[in-house]
Structure formats: C-alpha cells, structure tokens
Design brief:
- With about 500 residues, the chain is of the alpha+beta class.
- Helix content is about 70%, strand content about 10%.
- The strands form four sheets. Strands 6, 7, 8 and 9 form a four-stranded antiparallel sheet that branches. Strands 3-2-5 form a three-stranded antiparallel sheet, with helices on one face.
- The two termini are about 40 Å apart.
Length: about 500
C-alpha cells in the first residue's frame, strides 16, 4: 500500500512539473525585426519585443502585433485645390512613412494601429496627409509649386510631422509626382518659356555665326599675307644661294685642277722610289732566306736528337711509376678488405648480443606485467564480490524493516506522509511563477483587491489536490485532517499531531 502511495505521489509531482513546462513552452514568443510584439495583461506597462524572444503567461497575458516596416502612402488631391494666386491645381505625391522605434512612439501607434496590416495603416494615414498637403497648397503660388518642388515637399513633411508624431508615425520622405491645373496654365507657361528659349537660342546662334565669319576672314587675310611674305623671302634666299654656289664651284674647280697636276707629279716620283726600294728589298730578302734555311737545318737536327732522348726517358719513368702505383693500390685494397671483414664480424656479434639482451628484458617485463594485472584483477574481483554481498545483506535487512513498518501504518500515518510532501508539491506548483520578475495586480472593481483574489485561490488549489489524493488512495484526507476541532471547522486550519507535523492554510486577506 505504501509503495502504491509513493508511486502515486511521484506521478503527481511529475505531472505538475510537466504541466509547468508545457505552460512555459506555450507562452514562448519571438518577434521578428519588422514587427513589435506587445505583451500585456499583468504588468501596468506592457512589454515590447522587437527582434527578440520572450515569455507570456497563458490565460493572464496576451500578445498583440504592430507592423514596423516602411509603408508607402499615395497622397492625391481628389478635388482641385486653389493656390495662393487662386488657380485650381491637382497634386499627386508619395510619402514614405513608418512607425517610430522609440517606446513612446510604439505606445502611441499601438493605440491606433495594433494588429493592423500595412495597407490598413496607410489608408488611415492617407486622409491626414492629404489634408496637410491641401493646407500647404493654399499658401503657395502656382509657379512656386511647379518650379520649387523640393521646398513644397519639405513644407508638406514639416506640416504633416506634427500630426503624425501624435500617432507615433515617422515621415521618411515626401516626393511630388505630378502637378496639373484645370485651365492648362502650366502648359501655357511652358509654351511661353519654350518660345523665349528658342528666340534666345536663335539670336545667340546668329551672333555666333557672325563672329565666326569675321574671325574666319581675318584669319584668311593674315594667312595670305604670311604666305606671300614667306614665298618672297624664300625666293631671295634661293637666288643668293645660287650665286654663292657658283662662286664656290669656280674656286673648287681651280683648286681641283692644281691638285690633280701636283698629284700626278708626286705619284710618278713615288712609283720610281717604290720600284727601287722593291728591288733592293727582294735581293736582301733572298740573302736572308738562304742564311735562315741553313740555320733551320741545324736547329732541326738538334731538336730531333733531343726529342728522341727525352721520349725514351719519359717512357722509362712512366713505366716505373705505373708499376709502383699498381703495387701500392693492390696492397691498400687487400688491407681495406681485411679491415672491412673484421668490422663486419664485430658488428654482427654486437647486434646478436643486443638482440639477445632485449629479448630477455622484454620477456621479463611481460611476465611482471601479467603477474601484476592478474593480482590486481583478483583483488578487484574479490573486493567487488564482498561489496555486492554486503550491499545485498543490507538491502535485505532494510526491506524487512521497511515491510514491518508498513504493516503498522494506518490512515493517519498515510495522511501524515502525504502532508509532508505537500510543501514540495506547493513549491513545484509555484515554480513557474518564480520566473516572473514583476506582477501588477489590478482589482475587479467589486471592493476586493488583486492580492486577496490570488491568496483566496490557494485553498481552492489545495482542496483540488486533496480531492485528487483521496480518489487515488481511497482515504478521506479532509476528514482525517479536520481532526474534529472547532478551530479546523471555523478557520479551515489543518492540524495533525504526530511527529510534530502541522500544516495551516489561512484564508484571511493579506
């Protein structure tokens, strides 16, 4: 029976926790960057979420949405509006607006545009903006409206901003698209300006053509004068050049004739001297060649004898050195081979000894490791077995004592156990409310304040818990806890004397 009661209590606590989690999950909201989520209901001042997440309390708070994106409003004068100079005009403009991002602007806009689409908001703003534009048109002349549209749009924005700020709306821009009048005066002004511009352009073109013709004639005259002067100077220079060339040619021809005669005489004398010198040189050359040939024969004989003797000595020396080098090389190779064989034998011997030592050390280490692991496993198994045995004996004894104690329990004891866990249940029920940083409580207007209403709900919640526990266990906890006392019947206090347990629920207003 006690096990059943314990399981029931656990299930109730788990159910309360699950319900609390579901409530929190159901109240989770997340606002996009272009919308403001306004949470109201408990707090005196609503919470505003823009681009972030929050939690609302179900059944106590609500979430409303406010569009914060840019909106386009068409501003048209549906009827003609007289200007300052009494000319009826129609103006077509476009304004870009949005709801302000400050908390004050959002609160103002929430009073008028909450949960409305952008189209509905623009329709609400259209009349006000049209009225502002009509007022500005009445203060300006037709020519000013048509020629200085920037100033016109600025005045409309300045005028409309005062009214829009009261609604929490911010005007981003205002552009004048078209301006027309009923009598076509704007077109007439355009035609007048067009004719004037064409006239000024024709006059300017005629003056420009005249200036061009004059400048061209002056330029042609100056060019002709310069050309004639230049040709005259060229002719004079060419004539002087021809005369100078003739004089120079005459002097050159005379000097050339004199030079040719002198050259012929000098050439003949030089040829004669050259022939004489040539004959003498040939005779001397023949004598020198004969002497040179005799000396060359003697030198050749001496060189041949020296070369034969030198070659024989060189071949003998080369043979001796070659034999000595071969002998030394064979000796070095034999010594090197012997040294390599000795070194190789020593290395193989040392390697074999090292391998033998390493194998002995590895075998000893493996044996020691296995011995240590076996001893550790045996000791661990023995300790675990003794611990399991002791734990089993202790659990068996505890179960026997718990069974004997359960046999002695009656309805009052069961009630006492249920009452002991009631604070924990109350804490779990109140845990979701602990996540709320601030609660504003408003009265209903019937003379009772919000605090008394919340505290008055506590006995109802506790009674529902008692009824659920009574149905689950079959024990009437209300009758047991009343204990038949006058105080319990009048003040609805619950007293149970057992091991000093006392639970009081006071329904008085605090």
């Amino acid at each position: 029976m006690m096990n059943m009661l314990f399981d029931t209590t656990t299930i109730l606590i788990a159910a309360v926790v699950v319900i609390a989690i579901i409530v929190i999950a159901a109240g989770y909201v997340k606002a996009p960057p272009d919308r403001a989520f306004i949470i109201s209901g408990i707090r005196r001042k609503p919470r505003i979420l823009i681009g972030r997440a929050g939690v609302k309390i179900p059944f106590f708070e609500r979430v409303d949405k406010l569009y914060l994106g840019q909106m386009t409003v068409d501003i048209k004068t549906e009827q003609s509006v007289p200007t300052n100079d009494f000319i009826n005009v129609n103006v077509d403009a476009v304004a870009k607006v949005r709801i302000g991002t400050t908390p004050e602007a959002i609160q103002l806009a929430a009073k008028n545009f909450l949960n409305k689409d952008p189209e509905m908001i623009t329709m609400d703003l259209q009349d006000s903006l049209q009225g502002n534009m009509r007022e500005i048109i009445g203060t300006l002349a037709l020519k000013t409206i048509n020629t200085d549209r920037d100033s016109f749009s600025d005045q409309v924005m300045e005028k409309a901003s005062k009214d829009m700020n009261k609604l929490g709306i911010e005007i981003l821009s205002c552009n004048i698209q078209n301006v027309t009048d009923e009598n076509g005066l704007i077109s007439d002004l355009g035609m007048d300006n067009t004719a004037k511009i064409k006239k000024d352009a024709a006059i300017a073109k005629a003056q420009a053509d005249r200036d061009v013709a004059i400048a061209k004639a002056e330029a042609d005259k100056a060019a002709n004068d310069a050309r004639v002067l230049a040709q005259t100077e060229i002719a004079e220079k060419n004539n002087a050049l021809a005369i100078k060339q003739a004089e120079l040619k005459k002097e050159a021809d005379t000097a050339s004739a004199v030079a040719d005669a002198a050259y012929e005489i000098q050439q003949q004398e030089q040829q004669k001297s050259i022939q004489t010198a040539t004959v003498n040189a040939q005779i001397a050359k023949a004598e020198r060649e004969a002497e040179l040939k005799q000396k060359e024969v003697v030198v050749k004989q001496q060189q041949l004898a020296a070369e034969i003797e030198k070659q024989a000595d060189a071949e003998k020396y080369q043979a001796e050195k070659k034999a000595e080098a071969e002998l030394v090389q064979r000796q070095k190779k034999a010594e090197a081979a012997k040294y390599e064989q000795e070194r190789e034998a020593d290395a193989k011997k040392a390697q074999a000894e090292a391998q033998k030592f390493a194998a002995e050390q590895e075998a000893a280490g493996i044996k020691a490791k296995y011995d240590a692991e076996a001893a550790g496993i045996a000791a661990k198994g023995k300790a675990e077995a003794e611990a399991i045995k002791a734990k089993g004996i202790a659990e068996a004894e505890a179960m026997e004592k718990k069974a004997e104690a359960y046999k002695k329990y009656n309805g009052a004891a069961m009630a006492e156990m249920m009452i002991k866990i009631m604070p924990q249940m109350a804490a779990e029920i109140a845990k979701p409310l602990s996540q709320i940083d601030k609660i504003n409580i408003y009265g209903t207007g019937d003379g009772t304040n919000g605090a008394s209403q919340i505290s008055g709900n506590m006995p109802i919640v506790m009674k529902q818990v008692f009824d659920t526990m009574s149905e689950a266990t079959g024990v009437d906890f209300t009758e047991i806890m009343k204990a038949g006392t006058y105080d319990a019947k009048v003040n609805k206090n619950i007293n149970l004397s057992g091991d000093g347990v006392s639970v009081n629920i006071d329904k008085t207003n605090k």
